[in-house]
Amino acid sequence: MKFLNGGWLIRDGFDVKYAANIYDADIEEKKLTLYCPFGVPIHHPGQTLDGGMLTIEVTSPRPDIITTRMINFRKNRDHCPAFQLNTTDPDVSIEENDEAWSFTSGRLTLRIAKGESIDFQYLYDGKEIARSGWRAKALVTDDQGRLHVSEQLNLGVGEKIYGLGERFTNFVKNGQSVEIWNEDGGTGTEQAYKNIPFYLSNKKYGLFVDNPGKVSFEIGSEKVSRVQFSVPGEEMTYSVIGGEDLKAILGNYTDLTGKPPLVPEWSYGLWLSTSFTTDYDEKTVNEFVDGMAERDIPLSVFHFDCRWMKDVEWCNFTWREDTFPDPEGMLAGLHAKGLKVCAWINSYIAQKSPLFEEGAAKGYFIKRKDGSVWQWDKWQAGMAIVDFTNPEATKWYQSKLRHLIDQGVDCFKTDFGERIPVDDVVYYDGSDPEMMHNYYTYLYNKAVYDLLVEAKGKDEAILFARSATVGGQCFPVHWGGDCSSNYPSMAESLRAGLSFGMSGFGYWSHDIAGFEDRPTPDLYKRWTQFGLLSSHSRYHGSTEYKVPWLYGEEAVDVAREFTKLKLRLKPYLLDQMKVTHETGVPMMRAMVLEFPDDPACEDLDTQYMLGDDLLVAPVFSEDGTARFYVPDAGGEQAGQPWVSILTGKAYEPGRWYTETFDYHTLPALARPGSNPLGE
């Protein structure tokens, strides 16, 4: 949210009250409370009247994390959903002298200066990593009369900001306005399916705003030397997170919000989808599966998209009798071929679905203020939305999925979860609708994941989810949404995946060859390379089948080669999965996360590390040209060359390369001293 008009004025219709200085403070054992008048510092008793005051509470939920809660008027938050945080009782020290208060947790210290202005200085091992200074903390009234709490941290020379969820815009977020508000906007705009109010700075700190509703970030876009973040209402809680490096900070953040779990070994193979609106039946499914086998393309998972259910009845959770007369037999046949089965679902119930009357009668849907079911036509005619704040509604929804599991379904694609209304909305538990908009996806995906853990066991539970919020990393895997079938969209998908990994999520996938439109054979082959060198790999589309033989014999060869390459990499990937689970560092990671001290890696978003030891640079051009950078591995491998796992060619570190690759090769380089293929 922008409220300034240049450097000196306020936008028309807005009012801003800045916290001036610290008038008083209370020190408890592990809590520091500061009282900060608005406007000007208080120098005599008369100034204590009619002025207003910001109360600031400083605490620590875990070592190396310092949390600040800024409060105007205290409100009852019993009906606000809250992120599930893993707090501990860390050792905290609070010291005061004539110049400042110091609050220390682990190796992170917040030094708060006394005087005529407010100065929050964050130091890790004594070195400044972040700072909030003059006119940073404010209470803003917008041009609609709504209150917001706002804070600013300095944006230093050369400082770059990453993360904030799966964002399709520039990988480095400097200069961007970012709204943390889940929307179904495809991959070509500033909207995002997975908004996470957490960022990483290359100055070695993380910033997490603990608010499940809308959070607005202005990253050098309101004041160019500051990162500004604000929330509607009268209080805001945020945490500065320290660590030795970006990986350690990510580890501390996921200690707080949840570590990605282990996922099944079979999930690392190739997933094949029927695609979205295509016609298919049991015969089509078996033709696809058998066609892959006949062409020696190993397949791990077959995915049934929407139309396994009757049209305009999504969701009824019942197989179409005209196309799947014997679902149990069909699924048993797919299992006999060595496949796992995934089925598409969402949390919406069309009015035509036989489940609508049942859910409405029992009060299982989100309601309007007049007590009626909240309905609209965006997606399915007259659809309702399951209310997961109602425990009985959650059990009811899970019971429909349990039947599918009993029939032979192994996992679910939990689509949608972003178009959650806020106007004229009442939840079963009285939750604030605006706070529930982003948080809904957490309850939705948790309900499905918990069922799979119960039915299949924790080692076998996995989703294919589109929407997410903080904590959603505990319910993997996520994919990148509705991308187009062209190179710019392929590149924006990778940017988004790298941002997602900088936001606490360990696994990520995307629609190989693009969701919209029909890809060219060229794009199909290039995206196949990229897709099968991602943590998870799925062919999927909208109106077009994505089986490789529809795109030429060479596409078949490329699909076979790279599917088998990924299977050869599986032992390496399983080892890297354990690293992700234990540390929170993603399997697919941005170069800056792996090489934070190499300036050439700070902006790189067209290549990535797949685990610790494999550098991948997808080809984004029809002529096969790729431009990529090879960093110095450092340590004992400093100065040593990286080697292609496909050609054996060596590449000297610290250099940029521009080369042309055929469809059977791309830059896939092993770190010096490593052997990802284990051969």
Please summarize what this structure is.
This protein is of the alpha+beta class. The strands form 8 sheets. Strands 4-5-6-7-21-18-17-15 form an 8-stranded antiparallel sheet. Strands 3-13-14-20-19-16 form a 6-stranded antiparallel sheet, with no helix packed on it. The longest helix has 31 residues, at 553-583.
List keywords for this structure.
10 helices, alpha+beta, 21% helix, six-stranded antiparallel β-sheet, Immunoglobulin-like, 3 domains, eight-stranded antiparallel β-sheet, 37 strands, 679 residues, TIM Barrel
Biggest sheet details: 8 strands, antiparallel
Q: Count the E strands.
A: 37
- The secondary structure category is alpha+beta
Poorly predicted ranges (pLDDT <50, ≥5 residues)?
none
Strand order of the largest sheet: 4-5-6-7-21-18-17-15
Q: Tell me the radius of gyration.
A: 26 Å
Give me the CATH fold name of the largest domain: TIM Barrel
The CATH architecture designation of the largest domain is Alpha-Beta Barrel
CATH class of the largest domain: Alpha Beta
Number of helical elements: 10
Distance between the termini: 54 Å
Q: How large a portion of the residues is in β-strands, by DSSP E?
A: 25-35%
The CATH homologous superfamily of the largest domain is named Glycosidases
Give the proportion of residues in helices.
10-25%
Number of domain modules: 3
